[in-house]
Amino acid sequence: MVTAREPMASLDLPAVDDLVFGGHDIRDQSIEETVEQANEAGGVPNSKTLDAVREDLREIDERVTMGTARKCGQVVEELSDDKATNEGTLAEIVSQIRSDYETFAAEQDVDKLVVVNVASTEPPIKGDEKFDTLDELETAIEEDDSDLPASSLYAYAALVDEHPYVNFTPSTGSALGGLRELAAEKNVPHMGRDGKTGETLVKSALAPMFAGRNLQVLSWEGHNILGNTDGLVLEDDANKEGKIESKGNLLEQILGYDHHNAVRIDYTPSLGDWKTAWDHIHFQGFLETKMKMQFTWEGSDSALAAPLVLDLIRLIAYADEHGEGGEQPQLASFFKSPQGVDEHDLSVQFQKLYDYSERHLNDAPSGTVE
Amino acid sequence: MVTAREPMASLDLPAVDDLVFGGHDIRDQSIEETVEQANEAGGVPNSKTLDAVREDLREIDERVTMGTARKCGQVVEELSDDKATNEGTLAEIVSQIRSDYETFAAEQDVDKLVVVNVASTEPPIKGDEKFDTLDELETAIEEDDSDLPASSLYAYAALVDEHPYVNFTPSTGSALGGLRELAAEKNVPHMGRDGKTGETLVKSALAPMFAGRNLQVLSWEGHNILGNTDGLVLEDDANKEGKIESKGNLLEQILGYDHHNAVRIDYTPSLGDWKTAWDHIHFQGFLETKMKMQFTWEGSDSALAAPLVLDLIRLIAYADEHGEGGEQPQLASFFKSPQGVDEHDLSVQFQKLYDYSERHLNDAPSGTVE
Amino acid sequence: MVTAREPMASLDLPAVDDLVFGGHDIRDQSIEETVEQANEAGGVPNSKTLDAVREDLREIDERVTMGTARKCGQVVEELSDDKATNEGTLAEIVSQIRSDYETFAAEQDVDKLVVVNVASTEPPIKGDEKFDTLDELETAIEEDDSDLPASSLYAYAALVDEHPYVNFTPSTGSALGGLRELAAEKNVPHMGRDGKTGETLVKSALAPMFAGRNLQVLSWEGHNILGNTDGLVLEDDANKEGKIESKGNLLEQILGYDHHNAVRIDYTPSLGDWKTAWDHIHFQGFLETKMKMQFTWEGSDSALAAPLVLDLIRLIAYADEHGEGGEQPQLASFFKSPQGVDEHDLSVQFQKLYDYSERHLNDAPSGTVE
Amino acid sequence: MVTAREPMASLDLPAVDDLVFGGHDIRDQSIEETVEQANEAGGVPNSKTLDAVREDLREIDERVTMGTARKCGQVVEELSDDKATNEGTLAEIVSQIRSDYETFAAEQDVDKLVVVNVASTEPPIKGDEKFDTLDELETAIEEDDSDLPASSLYAYAALVDEHPYVNFTPSTGSALGGLRELAAEKNVPHMGRDGKTGETLVKSALAPMFAGRNLQVLSWEGHNILGNTDGLVLEDDANKEGKIESKGNLLEQILGYDHHNAVRIDYTPSLGDWKTAWDHIHFQGFLETKMKMQFTWEGSDSALAAPLVLDLIRLIAYADEHGEGGEQPQLASFFKSPQGVDEHDLSVQFQKLYDYSERHLNDAPSGTVE
Ligand SMILES: NC(=O)c1ccc[n+]([C@@H]2O[C@H](COP(=O)([O-])OP(=O)(O)OC[C@H]3O[C@@H](n4cnc5c(N)ncnc54)[C@H](O)[C@@H]3O)[C@@H](O)[C@H]2O)c1
Ligand SMILES: NC(=O)c1ccc[n+]([C@@H]2O[C@H](COP(=O)([O-])OP(=O)(O)OC[C@H]3O[C@@H](n4cnc5c(N)ncnc54)[C@H](O)[C@@H]3O)[C@@H](O)[C@H]2O)c1
Ligand SMILES: NC(=O)c1ccc[n+]([C@@H]2O[C@H](COP(=O)([O-])OP(=O)(O)OC[C@H]3O[C@@H](n4cnc5c(N)ncnc54)[C@H](O)[C@@H]3O)[C@@H](O)[C@H]2O)c1
Ligand SMILES: NC(=O)c1ccc[n+]([C@@H]2O[C@H](COP(=O)([O-])OP(=O)(O)OC[C@H]3O[C@@H](n4cnc5c(N)ncnc54)[C@H](O)[C@@H]3O)[C@@H](O)[C@H]2O)c1
Ligand code: NA
Ligand code: NA
User: Does residue B368 lie within any of the structural domains?
Assistant: First the structure.
């Protein structure tokens, strides 16, 4: 976890052990079964860990209720047998989600509810400018506008009741103008999009090197293979579209010029939860000499994502505690497409978090009383 | 070139076209022949470029005189047929080099002489603390101490006559206490060691990513193969020693903990001037999950080094012009082992150069007249 | 060249220096210009070679006449400005090609004319069973059937006049039943399809290792990037289809079971004539342990293909000389989808060629007289 | 297992379930503990498998007795606390080993005893010609010649009592002239050396491709990193020497010419039982165009070796059953340096095993009686 490092470790963040998990899903498969499959297919988590948390997983499962799959694309709908996932008007769905949140918070007696979107990637929506103001958005909900995706409904339900919200996926979530307005008005912190766990993380560390050395990138080809349900959903061209975008765009921002830049994602079931990315970077130096760098990144998708989700929960709860609403630029390093932040150089993004933490540490009363 | 980028490009640096090249060598082989071999073996530079600069290369050759190979190790001595390269007392050698510098400067009528060490890597010296003061160093020269290596003689000859000095190699050069004292006393800028052109450059961009994300590096294995004379000299275990050190040390500084960290260098003649590095990084994340990243870097050694040498000449001449003597931390990003700088994070090093440049740009009179 | 190795080198093959080149194209660009671009973009051939053959290239250009682009797909049609490439009835086109062949043979006074298809890849045709007999095929030509592709027209024109024919591309060429019948009837040798120069060559060498060791391949992912006109044409999904097929199919034949097997091809202009393939092989051994092999293959497409084309010309002319008509299984090792041969193990395919050569060497009169 | 494939599967081989394991070791560490460490460090075998065989492992441990470490080099001696491993005269040691073999066979009531050397790699011995005849060898044992290594003592003890013998390591084993004479005289089958499980396996599949296509290999660099005790022992330059030899030599045999060919082995503890090999092959094609292939092979050392050991036990027992003494060329594909076989092309080696199997299947009485 990033929050286990200094200076973040010295912040007064909620303890991991104090977190209580619950949520929505649209599949029936129990978490225990999902984790068992991951253990079988890729050894992560290992059998010892699985046995140690089996009881906890069952308890969490009881706190998971049926969600909505509105506008999530066909492949997501097929994950679920349950017709219910696509039924109801938007107003009914939103009201159900809000009530699910309250029930969970009440039953678990939590101090603060944080909502994190870790659902399957939705296809990007077209024409999001029609949800540019809170007014338009709320009208759309009332009028059951068929273009509003599930991720934005979960986000609306969170923000309207002042729960901090994090979007770990490339889906729309809180990125709509209307939701940013809502968050600002209610002064609730929110941030997204798309956790930066692997290939894109490396890109954001390497591309500044090419830029700083004035080595001109001619082409940057990335090919990803992965075997989990995320991979299955991303097989679908519609759902893949948003992912591709958030994986590729940062290069142009860092390098400052156009170049051939392609990202491929292929579903390779045998890999289970493991993902391999191969990147081929063709660049040009002195006297137009063409050279190349290649890398492979082989990671367990979930082992990379899980600690970041914990970090984000802790850090956004902290921001909320300190009355910091709206987008949270100090969290930029966690995202492929950080909302409200144009900077993609990883080191500069890290620095934002360190500066934020140090500012808070310096501001904090030193705990002494006279 | 880095100096072709903003904000450096706006500094009033000497123009590349105004530079005049000359120097010392201990081999007889003409530069033209060396470049022809590089063209044949690896296509860099290509035939067109070679033909375009052939005449210039011949002129430079006439400005190259015989140097010294003192303490450069057996493999370097074997590069030269000429016994002279190892003869004379230190005092005689130093006086010869100083006079060579002056002759060159006078004949070419240069405004400023900058000395850059791009000679073959020497074996590291033992017991450098006996050259810790200028006094000790000058006594050692007078007494013909057999431990002083060629690189430090060239550096002494430069600094004592107030010529800025850059050490692009892992050799000792100006890193001795006595030479640092001399540079400070005379207020001459100098900087080193070991140009950061390839594998180590990538390390300094990637390691901060692992550190920032709290992904624990378990082992970082690097294997380099290259085919030029640099490779031939580094085949020798004694000469290789210094190189290995400066390629490996930065990881520990960036990561802040010990781990298995090995660097191999193998001479593979068929590669000519091309170098391939393969790095294998084994790291551990959440729940002790072991993952890995691998990269290959395939570059033309000379095409990577040449622009940096030009950058360094321009920037150190500029520093000299502005009365900035001693070590030059703003140049840290160019070196594997930047003298006087502990920071190895590439982005932070880049920032030092940008800050330096902007400071100078802001200080500069804006060119307006009343 | 394979034919420079024993035992093939001892066969009485036509000398490379005796070959005269000519042909059809549908682009206007001169060969000299194409080769100049390849030299600029990727250094193959190098400037010296280019200068040495410049005159020959101009002469060949004069022997190249306008061909037909029937059924070659839109992207091929766009390569040519000339409307003529798509005009005329099939009967007119065939008669033109036959007359072009005769004119070339007469003007150059060649002993034997060999036709090799090295044109851009066509989209695969649907319903090729309607050309299953020579009768059906000739009727289709008379009736101007819009489904017959250019490659089969060039092949028909060759075979009907008893010129040996080689198809170095994945296009249909002589693979139609009707053309096989024609070749058999006229006893003309012909062979195809799709030169095996890179990734697929490696597959046919490696897959038998997995099979022989009973290591179960779970998935074999291949990703190809290339920058030449071949790459541009293969960007088009229709044209790519045939290529993908012939790159993937052999694995199933060698391994003998189904597995996840994907091939990607991406056009990356900066690579010029260079192609990089990255393959990721996930396999399972003892106790279901999952392991992996990855390889990259970085070759100059043309430098890999050219010698094989020369080999094939020499070997098929030889077969023709010896009265061997129909498909030529001894040439299987040269092709991704060898016509009439099910064996894909490279070593076994090589053995076919060695056996063929040795049979001929043993049969040949030993040159002694009594 | 290779013997699970046809045609070997149809041979009347001993069933795996009927095998009983025992042996010598010089370390105290129990097998259970070794396997537990492998499970922890690299997940092979996984926890389920470990639990399933735990009891068997304990039983095998009881059948393991103290062996000898004569001439195994310092690093092997350090594996053992027990002085006994280096004590006794050769005659005493041999007699002890023979009696250990008999005790095991008697107690377990086995039909046939097969001895397989899977001990740590010894340093290669110098001057093995002094053991060229059985006479010389037996004299050396009597005279306690300090140059005879442990592996040859275990081999002698096996062969003299007519137990088939397999050497899975690069150590000397039965490769001495005197032991080959003994095996021939007694008509006992034996074979070695050095199981071909990874990098070298790939080399023997790929090198024939370069040879057959007349692509000239300029250099073949191999770099291996591994983390188990095998790696620890191979850290020692003396012990590594034999391994390097058997990993490199085959290329020259297959290619038929000299080239730059280097193999590196580094101990990287974090990898546990996993081994990664990186190979870089630089080759030259048409018009001297230089191209390259690179591969990585990432395998679990033990999961790759174990099935081959089972295969070899089954196949050498079968050979013994059929009265086939001396070296066993049909087993060449299993070894990096197959004794008595010059052929290194993997496919040709596989073919030897298939031919052998089919010959036996055809010879076998069809099992019918009238
Ligand atoms: N390394 C990573 O794992 C990583 C990194 C960046 C982003 N992400 C994103 O995080 C998300 C989750 O990834 P994952 O690997 O855990 O995927 P997953 O497929 O294992 O889990 C997604 C879960 O979301 C559920 N779901 C789908 N649509 C839903 C909806 N509308 N409402 C409620 N639940 C819904 C699915 O049933 C499934 O249980 C994906 O969007 C992915 O792109 C993951
Ligand atoms: N990418 C790079 O090229 C790169 C990067 C970092 C550091 N370096 C260092 O720069 C140096 C030069 O590298 P290169 O590739 O040009 O090597 P090179 O072998 O091509 O050139 C070195 C030259 O130095 C000469 N020489 C050796 N000892 C000398 C001495 N005592 N006095 C004068 N001349 C001497 C040699 O004769 C040769 O002409 C090496 O030390 C290398 O380690 C190079
Ligand atoms: N390594 C290799 O180069 C390789 C390997 C296997 C197969 N092939 C196949 O060989 C063919 C040629 O490859 P390339 O790299 O030389 O491609 P290329 O694009 O450089 O050349 C193809 C030429 O064919 C011409 N052409 C296209 N359609 C034609 C038609 N109907 N009639 C006459 N000319 C036509 C084009 O104008 C172009 O000049 C392709 O089909 C390719 O898939 C090439
Ligand atoms: N993939 C593979 O595992 C592989 C492939 C080819 C060859 N080999 C060879 O097989 C051998 C075993 O490999 P490993 O990975 O199992 O090694 P390991 O280090 O795990 O096991 C070797 C065992 O041999 C014991 N030993 C050492 N010297 C001995 C002696 N003189 N007498 C009796 N026991 C002795 C050690 O104590 C240890 O228990 C090595 O020589 C290795 O080079 C292994
Ligand atoms: Na960075
Ligand atoms: Na083979």
Answer: no
**Residues C96 and C234 reside in one and the same domain:** no
Query: Is the model's pLDDT at C249 over the cut of 60?
Result: yes
What ligand has the least distance to the C-alpha of C30? 3
Query: Of A301, A321, A348, which closes a domain?
Result: A301
Q: What are the angstrom distances between the C-alpha of C168 and each of B103, C336, D44, D176, D201?
A: 65, 9, 46, 52, 31
Task: Name the residue range of residue A278's domain.
Answer: 199-301
Q: Which residues from chain C sit within 8 angstroms of residue B300, using beta carbons?
A: none
Specify if D370 maps to a domain.
Answer: no
**Cβ of C352: how many Cβ atoms within 10 Å?**
18
Is C120 a member of any domain? yes
- pLDDT band with cut points at 50, 70 and 90 for residue C368: very low
- Cβ B76 under 6 angstroms from ligand 2: yes
A&C contacts, CB < 8 Å: 56
Please tell me the distance from the alpha carbon of residue D250 to that of residue D336, in angstroms, as a whole number: 8
> Is A190 found in the same domain as A105?
yes
Verify that B109 and B186 share a domain, yes or no: yes
Residue B48: what pLDDT? Answer: 92
Residue numbers in D near C213 (CB within 8 A): 2, 201
Q: Are residues C326 and C257 in the same domain?
A: no
D271 touches chain B (CB under 8 A): yes
| Mean pLDDT value of segment A104-133 | 96
Are A221 and A132 members of one domain?
A: no
Predicted confidence (pLDDT) per residue in B285-303, tens digit: 999 999 999 999 999 999 9
Subunits with 3+ Cβ pairs within 8 Å of A are B, C, D
pLDDT (tens digit, 9 = 90+) per residue, A243-281?
A: 888 777 899 999 999 889 999 999 999 999 999 999 999
* Same-domain pairing of C246 and C313: no
Dump pLDDT digits (tens) for A340-370.
999 999 999 999 999 999 999 998 765 444 4
Complete edge-to-edge strand list for the sheet that includes strand B326-327: B115-117, B165-167, B189-192, B326-327
CB contact under 8 A, C219 and A262: no
Q: Are residues A191 and A209 in the same domain?
A: no
- Residue C369 lies inside a defined structural domain of this protein: no
Instruction: Tally the domains of chain C.
Output: 2
Cα of A266 vs centre of ligand 6, distance in Å, is 29
Residue C266 to residue A225, Cβ atoms within 8 A: no
The domain spanning residue B250 has which CATH number? 3.30.360.10
Percent of chain A with pLDDT over 70: 98
Q: Give yes or no: residues C15 and C147 share one domain.
A: yes
Q: Which of A255, A286, A301 is the last residue in one of the domains?
A: A301
CB C84 within 8 A of CB C26: no
pLDDT mean over D325-353: 97
- What is the domain-level CATH number for residue A183? 3.40.50.720
Task: Dump strand ranges (E) for chain B.
Answer: 23-25, 64-66, 115-117, 165-167, 189-192, 216-226, 260-267, 274-284, 290-300, 326-327
Which alpha helices (DSSP H) does chain D contain, by range?
31-42, 47-62, 74-79, 90-108, 134-142, 150-160, 177-186, 199-212, 229-234, 237-255, 301-321, 346-363
Query: What is the tens place of the pLDDT at every residue in B39-76?
Result: 998 899 999 999 999 999 999 999 999 999 999 999 99
Q: Is pLDDT of B367 > 60?
A: no
Query: How is D62-99 classified by DSSP, letter by letter?
Result: HTEEE---TTS-HHHHHH---GGGG-S-HHHHHHHHHH
Q: Which ligand is nearest to the CA of D207?
A: 6
Of all residues in chain D, the percent with pLDDT exceeding 90 is: 86
CB contacts, 8 Å: A272 with chain D? none
C221 touches chain A (CB under 8 A): yes
Least confident piece of the model among B148-157, C240-249, D118-127: C240-249
**Cα(B119) to centroid(ligand 2), Å:** 4
Provide the ipTM.
0.95
